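Researcher: Go.
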Amino acid sequence: MNDTSPSPSRRALIGWGGAGLALGAAAAGGAVAVTRTGSDIDPVSAGSGGAVAFHGPHQAGIATPVQDRLHFAAFDVQTDDRAEFVRMLKDWTAAARRMTAGRAVGEGAYGGLPEAPPDDTGEALGLRPSRLTLTIGFGPSLFEKFGLADARPDALTELPKFAGDNLDRNRSGGDLCVQACADDPQVAVHAVRNLARIGFGRVVVRWSQLGFGKTSSTTPDEQTPRNLMGFKDGTRNIAGTETDRLEKFVWVDTKDGPGWMTGGSYLVARRIRMHIETWDRTSLQEQEDIIGRDKGEGAPVGKAKERDEPFLKAMLPDAHVRLAHPDSNHGATILRRGYSFTDGTDGLGRLDAGLFFLAYQRDPRTGFIPIQRSLAPDTLNEYIQHVGSALFAIPPGVRDPDDWWGRTLFSEEA
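Model: Structure:
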């Protein structure tokens, strides 16, 4: 730091609530050391078995069994200091490591210096880990900063405009994102809130989205969830146990490039408004024709069971399932982790409700983009509209306690 850096005592006083300053003693890999064991760790939460492993070759929250709740946030970077931004990523990683284990951030929500803000906001005290996962991604605009232009992947191209898009820029884009999934909404909100607080002065929330009622599953042995239109969604979704399909369609390979993305993925996030009042006045037969499955069992047209192989030619040419099926898109396949949302009303007496669509893939140019273009004539488009959009590069997982989010990118570019 320069000569205006706070003294060590002042730095300790500011703590995690400060404007992006280094905290405590540095761990071996440069991340903040927050591995204190003591009264800040709830033994029930930490040992409940409700924690998802944070370390691994891939980030949790992708192939992980889908949790019930979501808090997604996109951030814009405010600092032009590369070292300060990297320090924030290390701080975030340290905090995420503790929160996903059901532990408080830093020194906790109480018991510290009375004159300083607590290190943790405290609303998750006494709650179990709730299978919390935190997944970070980098948007195309981030690579315009910090001299990262040459490291931007070719696959991280701005999404094209699709037929019917009516995108709100205030709900689109972002330099980076955090996806928090948990079975308890308060745990998910707590996680994003703490990261936003730690990032104060370096990043600011651009937009965020709460989600409930997962609309896709990565565990096919469980009952397929339903979306707000009442239909089962994600019957053919990639399972977290299907290693071969994950390797083929989700994880970036060494030959895909660039090297820092190996083991990562690409995330497309789309806020899809559903005109549910109009849908609710549509006949059952028409609803089933539009989707291409029956509403009760979820069976494709002409079949008896949900997981029966669909006969696409038995469906109407503009049926959703027919147009979205891999056989109609040269095998294009994505992993979905979407959630339903309701955000009050639109001011015209209608619910602002729909699907927050999340799709992971090895390359959006061979995944989401061709599928979405194929859906242009989909009759379902009369009942939905895409109003928010973003694309992020999801780096590989945090390997061990000395690793940190984004290390492969920023170390490669150091």
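Model: Residues 66-79+131-414 form one domain.
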